[in-house]
Amino acid sequence: MDTSKDLPKFAVLQLSGCSGCEVSLMNSDEWISNFQLVYMPLVVSTHKIPEDVEVLLVTGGVRTDEDIHNLRKGRSRARKLIAVGTCALSGGVAQFKDNHIARESFIKASHRLRMPDMLPNAYPLDRFVDVDLYLPGCPPTPELFMTALKEPENAKIASIVCQECGRQKLNDMRPKHLTGSRSGVVLPDICLINQGYLCLGTSTRGGCGALCTRPGHACVGCRGPANPYLNKDPEFVLDNLRRVFTRMTDIPIEEINAALASPWLSLFLGQFTDYTQESDLPLRTKEKML
Amino acid sequence: MTTITYPLSRIEGHARVVIDVHDNEVFRADFQAMEMRGFGHYVRGVPAEQITVIVPRICGVCSTAHQVASVKALEDTFGITPPPLAEDIREVLLLGQLIQNQATSLFIFTMPDRANASSLFELSQSETGKAREFSLAQNALKIRKIGTDLISLAGGQFIHPIKTVIGGVTSGIPREKADQMIQTIKNLLPVAAEMVDIYWEMSMEMGDRIGSWGDDEPTHYLASIEANNYRLNSQRLRVMQPDGTEAPSFDPHEFEAYLQIAESEYSYAGVSNYMGQILRANSLARINLAESLGTPRADAYLKRFVQTFGKPAHAIMFFDLCRGIELVYALEKAQQMLECDLEHGETEVGYAPRDGTGFGLVEAPRGPLIHRYEVENGLIKSADFVIPTVHNMLAIRRALMVAAKRYVSEDGISAELERAVGRVVRAFDPCIACATK
């Protein structure tokens, strides 16, 4: 716990989120010895971001008018801003996308006296400020946090989740229907797609260590699109997923399409469009992605 | 009228305390949650079986409790009983959550208050001394990490875990990994006990220095552990009345007959009461309702606690000491459970989804957590999350009022009030993300 004053200043600003990113960060304690922690209300009683912060991590989405204010103020005081977690990159599970019924019901219920006003959606940071580095994941692993803080330029990140998964793709095991969201026994060592699970690992950015798929849980895409799918047409990723399933399975395409549109997947898959040409957000180039 | 606003730190989420003072008299002390998560709105229409992936995201600190409660609510809806091995693995998972949470609350959130420091990492500016502070911080993070490692072991990953599924858990815990974990616990249990002793001593000193342990008016207590079985993967809710006698226990299906939950005008978090009365949940409620925890070191601490402070004990700073007892308990219990065979045997049963209403209860670190889902045509028609922090809202307000009255006098508003406000809120360890679900 070196608190010597010559270490670069490090701050963590939490907007609207679940604190999961902070909990993950706390499991990678190297930042404590490499930086001087000057602001992180979860662990330090300070209420002001100092003027000369070297690295500012921002977690959570922009959900209230106060979030916009704090984000802009934080940006002006930091040399480098890292957007951390799915909420900061895309609003996270709190974004409504096309779910207008949920949005209406939420807005109706969200007025309070003398409280920050809730915005109609949870927005990504880069809608309001410049972001120097994007660190996606729900939450990013402690290892990814360390990479982001140490040498993100030289980081070698697995291109897709499959690369770290280790499950084998078979040619002669072609399911005819999707297995439910989770049922039956998952066979070890064999690709989840061969077993009929709607796994998004083939299109999702790696670097997570295939934390979910190795023990047998289909990838939900929390790390967002892999490099080849950045800044393309919004349908490009979905087309690729359809191609993967057509090549590896005999599941009818209608079934795949319906599943790709299911609310469970849309929570993360829905935000893949934030990385596309159609998005009204700044281009997220691969150099800025971790 | 003067309105003082205290922003809060070292708690989960965004909240503040607002106190109204007029002519040196306190009119109002309020605890306000400043953001709204709103999961109840956007899980409507979601296929029921997918909700267990979504709701852990209510809170990254409490994701384990939400995941297990969610799965149990669907099992209740579908009429499934998971195998005993799965129930045990879920218990290990919840013990991991308890270790992580209590270590965070004890050492990262509240220990700095005992040394008048702004954070665990800045204790050196206090009287505690550099060398001791260094080992305190290092040890605190090591102990906390046992909790997250246990969650990873039993849950697949330590935030938003995945291994608990409808019908059971996806796999057992291999002997080799259990043995590694046992070794870590064996090494760190004495360290944790020493940390708890230091914390206890610092708390006694703080109590002497301040001259008060905070609001100590007898109150109702709510917990779902049994008197002689501290199981967190729980079944029924119990209530202790202010005089220490027990009121009839109830099943999660019946919660609405006992707990009234309302929205709040000035806060995004709701407020609940027990039959119109103030209630408290969290560590002190459990310890008051427990006869024994069933592990040697923890029971020795329980005995010491009861002998020193009585039973039931009421002052709010006891919540913090009780977290220490529970930290030791959870480490001991996790070791005991890992020594059993959690690898072989049936881990899950098949099921057929059906419509209906179901309830899932677990004892989360902050108290009993209930998920209630109404499923129609396979989709979530409505979802309720009955949140432990919400049960403490009236108790937090009352304790803030007690503190405010203590530090507002004819001489004006004491600067000590700011510290007191922080101590009061942290004693309840509120979780704002959960409370505004």
Please provide a written account of the structure:
The complex is a heterodimer of chains A (290) and B (437). Chain A has 290 residues and is α/β, with parallel strands linked by helices. Helices cover 28% and strands 12% of the residues of chain A. Chain A is built from ten helices and seven strands. Chain A has helices spanning 20-25, 30-34, 65-77, 85-90, 100-109, 142-149, 162-165, 234-248, 253-260, 263-269; strands at 9-14, 36-39, 53-59, 62-64, 78-84, 118-123, 133-135. Chain A has a five-stranded parallel beta sheet with strand order 2-1-3-5-7, sandwiched between helices. In chain A, helix 8 crosses helix 9 (253-260). The mean pLDDT of chain A is 89. Chain B has helices at 39-42, 51-54, 63-78, 84-114, 130-155, 175-210, 255-258, 283-289, 296-309, 318-339, 388-391, 393-407, 416-428, 432-435, and strands spanning 2-7, 15-22, 25-33, 164-165, 168-169, 220-223, 237-240, 246-250, 259-262, 271-274, 279-280, 356-364, 367-376, 379-386, 408-409, 412-413. In chain B, the strands form six sheets. Chain B has a four-stranded mixed beta sheet with strand order 8-7-6-11. Chain B has a three-stranded antiparallel beta sheet with strand order 1-2-3. The mean pLDDT of chain B is 94. Helix content of chain B is 46%, strand content 19%. Chain B is built from 14 helices and 16 strands. With 437 residues, chain B is α+β, with helices and mostly antiparallel strands. Chain B starts with a strand and ends with a helix. Chains A and B meet through helix 1, helix 5 and helix 10 of A and helix 1, helix 4 and helix 5 of B.
